[in-house]
Amino acid sequence: MQEYKGLIFDLDGVIVDTAKYHFLAWKKLADELGIDFTEKDNERLKGVSRMASFEIILEIGNRKMSQEEKEECCRKKNDLYVSYIMQLTRSDILPGVDKFIRDAKKEGYKIALGSASKNSSLILSRLGIEDYFDAVVDGTKVLKAKPDPEVFTKGAEELGLSYGECIVFEDSTAGIEAAHNGGMKAVGIGSEDILNAADVVIPGFAGIDVGTLIEKL
Ligand code: BG6
Ligand code: MG
User: Fold this and answer.
1) 12 lines ligand 1 (CB under 6 A)
2) Which ligand lies nearest the alpha carbon of 169?
3) Percentage, residues of the chain above pLDDT 90
4) 153: CB partners within 8 A, 6+ apart
């Protein structure tokens, strides 16, 4: 049996429900640009970097822009997004996550963050959980976006573990693919219908026991 030693958590949609703020900020920008952007379209943006997300929105609206215009739009979206996440508090941590990570640490697992976000340090500090992580790998540290495994393989390396010793927790299809591309098991957080490529899917962490979950992998 494989001995797992490290748990790597995505941030947005796994630890905190920031996906709704990403959507609100993109929606406002899309409205201003006259692009019809729906919650269903937003699924495609999960786990995807800021610029790549905007390129998907432009594709939906069948629009083209210069690199400078795109950067300006991403800046605008991020300013609005940051104004939302500045309001986050500890109570915004998704149900059961805090206990799950603390229990895992007590059981000796090393904990890493593996997120595409460049705002992760602000979010972790607003939530007051920076100390939970033995390693933090985010959008400021990686060059390749999920489904490339870089964010997770770097996380494993920073934990001093082999890739196969780590388990990834993800709410996006791109992230689950990234975990598998890195030779890691993936626990999907969300709906079975969307995350059917994951090794196991849970709706959230509330009531989930670390040992029981890991035995299923
Ligand atoms: C991911 C989100 O975690 O981070 C994406 O799922 C987001 O929706 C990406 O685009 C980049 O985030 P940020 O905070 O750097 O714009
Ligand atoms: Mg996510």
Assistant:
1) yes
2) 2
3) 95
4) 163, 182
